[in-house]
Amino acid sequence: xxxxxxxxxxxxxxxxxxxAAARTLNVSVRQVTRFVASGQLAPIRLGPRLVRFTPAExxxxxxxxxxxxxxxxxxxxxxxxxxx
Length: 84
What we know:
The protein is mostly helical. 8% of the residues are buried. The protein is globular and about 50 Å long. The protein contains four helices and two strands; from the N terminus they run αααββα. Helices cover 42% and strands 5% of the residues. The chain has a domain at 13-67: Arc Repressor Mutant, subunit A, CATH 1.10.10. A two-stranded antiparallel ribbon has the order 1-2.
């Protein structure tokens, strides 16, 4: 029996970790970090390195991305040359 069921709570968490957010959005953890750094995704900061996300924020993020007609901005590739 898991601890959440013993306390009568649901196993659904109010706050999601970066890994859980990435799994929910079906992207990598690194991409979630990029979304946070660019300001597209707003985390709840519980400490200097501890960030969590609400399910409502993830839903709003997906809605904003679906409403925009262009894909999210990707960082420039620096120091890479094209082959001719």
